[in-house]
């Protein structure tokens, strides 16, 4: 596990965007796992800028998003389809045929739909780089606390904390979604490289438990300790409850010297 400590949100998002752009330059047909949420907005802004400046070409990249709210159409302003279009796809040259986002409008036969999403990932050759945010409750994707560490893409009931975090984005009186389709923790662990970004004090407890606590289904992101190539990119506020910060800084210095590829 690599823990990259950055001063603030702008440095976290820049580092993440540079890692993604560099992965695309190394493998133009990269299979990229994408995430939504406030933390990701700046990452996409940097990727769009890098693309406009000619530093990264997404024409052969294949994307898979982690999750989508159940019951929201792609045009709903709070849908993750809408988020992705607004912040990323409308501004870069990802081939629309290569974009995959779970369909929030499906009804019935959820298992069959979710199995087909997993199959599409497999047919694409598996995810090379997976971007992740983290919830205050430690969720990754919409894998809420007590999600099975072996879980695959499925229908998931949202936790109270997530409902509370999300309700502010919906119009007064509008029911916010109670369920989502999400890739599972097992699906995420299959990615070849995982980049998790966390910023702000509200994430500090979840970050500390995920990196330094026991692996537990109560903290979904702690399952990443099982992954052989995971990088946490964390700002000062989100890192504030980590006890081994001095060690992570030394590891970063040595990584820059010995295996700089992991940082670029
Ligand atoms: P946020 O969401 O980036 O909006 O904080 C992260 C998440 O819940 O995964």
Strand count, sense and barrel status of the largest sheet are: 7 strands, parallel
Shape: globular
Question: Uncertain segments of ≥5 residues (pLDDT<50)?
Answer: none
Strand content: 15-25%
Number of strand elements: 10
Mean pLDDT: 96
Distance between the termini: 16 Å
User: What hetero molecules are in the model?
Assistant: 2-phosphoglycolic acid
Number of helices: 8
Give the % helix: 25-40%
Give me the strand/helix succession.
Answer: EHEHEEHEHEEHEHEHEH
Secondary structure class reads alpha/beta
Q: How large, in whole angstroms, is the Cα Rg? A: 17 Å
Q: Please give the order of strands in the largest beta sheet.
A: 1-10-9-6-2-3-5
Describe the structure.
The chain is α/β, with parallel strands linked by helices. Helices cover 34% and strands 16% of the residues. The strands form 2 sheets. Strands 1-10-9-6-2-3-5 form a 7-stranded parallel sheet. Strands 4-8-7 form a 3-stranded antiparallel sheet. Strand 9 (193-198), helix 7 (204-212) and strand 10 form a beta-alpha-beta unit. Helix 1 crosses helix 2. The model has no long low-confidence stretch (mean pLDDT 96). The protein binds 2-phosphoglycolic acid. The site of 2-phosphoglycolic acid (PGA) has 7 residues, from helix 2.
Features:
16% strand; globular; alpha/beta; seven-stranded parallel sheet; binds 2-phosphoglycolic acid; three-stranded antiparallel sheet; 264 residues
In short:
34% of the residues lie in helices and 16% in strands. The structure holds 2-phosphoglycolic acid (PGA).
Topology:
Blueprint lengths: L1 E5 L2 H18 L4 E4 L3 H15 L9 E4 L1 E3 L10 H8 L11 E2 L9 H14 L5 E4 L21 E4 L2 H8 L11 E4 L2 H5 L3 E6 L5 H9 L17 E6 L9 H14 L6
Parallel strand pairs: 1-10, 2-3, 2-6, 3-5, 6-9, 9-10
Antiparallel strand pairs: 4-8, 7-8
Helix pairs in contact: 1-2
The structure holds 2-phosphoglycolic acid.
The site of 2-phosphoglycolic acid has 7 residues, from helix 2.
């Amino acid at each position: 596990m690599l823990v990259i400590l950055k001063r603030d949100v702008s440095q976290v998002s820049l580092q993440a965007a540079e890692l993604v752009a560099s992965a695309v330059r190394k493998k133009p047909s990269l299979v990229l796992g994408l995430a939504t949420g406030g933390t990701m907005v700046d990452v996409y802004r940097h990727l769009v800028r890098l693309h406009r400046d000619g530093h990264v070409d997404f024409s052969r990249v294949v994307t898979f998003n982690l999750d989508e709210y159940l019951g929201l159409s792609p045009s709903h302003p709070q849908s993750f389809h809408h988020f992705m279009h607004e912040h990323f796809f409308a501004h870069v040259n990802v081939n629309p045929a290569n974009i995959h986002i779970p369909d929030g409008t499906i009804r019935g036969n959820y298992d069959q739909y979710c199995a087909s999403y997993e199959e599409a990932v497999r047919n694409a050759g598996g995810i090379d780089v997976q971007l992740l945010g983290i919830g205050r409750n430690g969720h990754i994707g919409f894998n809420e606390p007590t999600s099975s560490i072996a879980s695959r893409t499925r229908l998931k009931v949202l936790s109270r904390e997530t409902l509370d975090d999300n309700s502010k984005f919906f119009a007064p009186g509008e029911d916010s979604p109670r369920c989502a389709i999400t890739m599972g923790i097992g699906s995420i662990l299959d990615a070849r490289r995982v980049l998790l970004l966390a910023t702000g004090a509200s994430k500090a407890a979840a970050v500390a438990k995920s990196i330094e606590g026991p692996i537990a289904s109560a903290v979904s992101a702690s399952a990443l300790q099982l992954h052989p190539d995971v990088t946490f990119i964390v700002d000062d506020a989100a890192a504030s409850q980590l006890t081994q910060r001095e060690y992570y800084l030394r590891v970063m210095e040595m990584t820059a010297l010995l295996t700089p590829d992991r940082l670029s």
